[in-house]
Design goal:
By secondary structure, the protein is mainly α. The chain has 8 helices and no strands. The longest helix is centred in the N-terminal third of the chain and has 24 residues.
């Protein structure tokens, strides 16, 4: 009994790994689907996004805002069901890198702070955690409860 508990403590319990994968994938997908929905279908939010894109100097702010909203909304829905999960994770990671580079570093992290303080602020950004979770989902796969898993089984890849 003790040795089994020690083994689980040191190496984890693989038979349950589907659960945190599902929770992470679904909750990230839900977050981005709701965020994208608001940017697509709530006129004030869409106008705010266009204004932000123009303010930060993004080329073609109307197109860029629409493109981002579509990627977030449909990518979020696809992530929730686990369809083309790795592709969606890459697309959303790119969106997060752009958000970090164009908005967060410039407008959130204080200027003139030391490197350790800067790193602390940087790692506190939610986009950084999203990217970490996306990389984790790419490397683990979308889990057993996903369309991708079902397709892989159907095509003899599992």
């Amino acid at each position: 009994m003790f040795s089994q508990l020690l083994k689980i403590t040191l190496t984890g319990e693989r038979s349950w790994e589907w659960l945190p994968i599902l929770v992470a994938r679904f909750s990230l997908g839900l977050f981005f689907a709701v965020s994208g929905y608001n940017k697509l279908f709530v006129p004030e939010k869409h106008a705010d996004l266009i204004s932000l894109m123009a303010d930060i100097g993004m080329p073609f702010p109307e197109f860029t805002a629409l493109f981002l909203a579509i990627v977030e909304f449909y990518g979020g829905l696809m992530l929730m069901v686990g369809f083309l999960s790795s592709v969606v994770c890459v697309a959303l990671s790119i969106a997060m890198v752009v958000a970090i580079a164009t908005v967060e570093i410039e407008h959130v992290i204080p200027k003139g702070i030391g490197p350790l303080d800067w790193m602390s602020w940087f790692l506190y950004l939610p986009q950084v955690m999203y990217i970490i979770l996306f990389v984790w989902l790419i490397t683990t796969g979308p889990g057993k409860l996903s369309v991708d898993h079902w397709l892989a089984k159907k095509f003899g890849m599992q």
